[in-house]
Model the fold of this input.
Amino acid sequence: MGTPLELVWGALRLDPAAFRSLLVAAPGAGVGLTVVYLAGLSLAVGQSVVLFAERVSPRRFAATLGVQAVLFLASFVGWALAVWWVARVGFDAARPLRDVVAVVGLAHAPQLLGFLILTPYLGGPLQSLLSAWTLLATVVAAAAVFDLGAAQALACSASGWLVAQLLQRTLGAPLVRAGQRVRAWVAGIEIASTARRER
Amino acid sequence: MPLLDPGTLALVALAALLLAGALSPLETLGWWAGWYGDPVDEREIDPACGSPDESDEPAADSARDAAEAGAGTASAAPAASPWVVYLTGIQAVGPVSYADPDRRLLARLADAVPSGRVLEVFPYSVTNRALTGERTFARVWRWALRAKLDHRRLLQLAGFLINLRNLWQVLVSADRRYGPFYSRGSAELIVRSLRRRGYPLEPGPYAPRIVLVGYSGGAQVAAGAAPFVRQRTHAEVTVVSLGGVLAADPGLLAADHVWHLYGTADRIQRWTSWMFPGRWRLLPWSPWNVARHRGRLSEVAISPCDHTGADGYLDEHARARDGRSYFEITLDVLAAIARGDDEPLPVAA
Done:
């Protein structure tokens, strides 16, 4: 296994070897989760306009970014679980969950550039580009971890994403709402308006 | 990997460009969020220009002047006493133009607009801080300015950093996410500047007409600020884009009229019209096209000039076929718009 920076660089270049090298290393899941947390932090910075618009203080701003990164991490774990389950059930490809977390986490490396969404006028296209890049990296990662072809890996990743979305909107809905409340509480904004919307 | 590998250099340059872009909205957002307190540098507002002898004129006197100007005919009052606010191009580093052609234009415009005032506002900072003033990277900008004013061509390229920095601010103004904040900040600077020069801010029938003249990127800032300036002053607001680098900003619809003046050899304003989709003719619902269809936006070719420098809008040597220099043509057209002349604009023959 290379250094974390080499792994991230490999993931950005969609190099399957970077993902495979995580499978033979003990701290692979740790690397994957760290990448996802930092990617969540970077995305939170990129999408922070709403915090500025609400005139959040610098201290609350920093704390809210941290909370958003944790929520992103939680959402990722749901997705990784769904991919792991879909691969097992739909494609008869069983791998330890920690391997899935490691490689799908590393596939979020493009989102480390999420802060670039702040770029004026180009923010929207850059966000789409980063999403597409992450999807491609996830397909490469799924192919590497489950030893699948490209089409199967795409189907596996997409199905996993759909299952995760379904779970978020049904069984996981109370958790999502709780996360939003924590975020609003930390930011010191919208607690009343969030509650109104929920009623 | 070789140190000067062109691919690596291109990647580093792209990364630096994007990083600068990502950081560019932070001044505006931080200002809006109140992270800097009230950082507007009042010392920098309203540098004496155009008519320096009037810079200390009490507000009441100017209000009286405005009322007197309107005493003859109410409808003629706003046009008779226009206030011109000039927002310069992206080469600027602070509230006072260092470029001689800009300064000459402002002085001549003040002479050409009877009883009018000509003010200058720095359009690329909502806190009105000069790049070379109290900023973290002030030394870098001072170096870039020295490089820009240097006669050596290579060093002048380094001065392009200033243009790049201000271009990002133009895009901040044009961005839907940041534009409303940036435009409010710019309008606040414009109104503060007007007030300090004695513009009567109280609502009344004789609010003097305000003409926002934006050169190059300044046009985008002028268009964005127009609705907020109008809201604060209750005045008729005319936006003039001189070779404007501007998007189809919703603010265009708040202006009483928008004049987009351009030179036929100005490729930059032409490229800009391609760069911002809202200016494409195939999007009839964009603010640009709506204003055009309502007859409130006029695109006028004023001369065969280029965007800047030699053969630019402010070139005093290059001449059109009617014998006037490009500078004189630009001045004549701006003055005619500011005065509200009924005759066709005095463009190059």
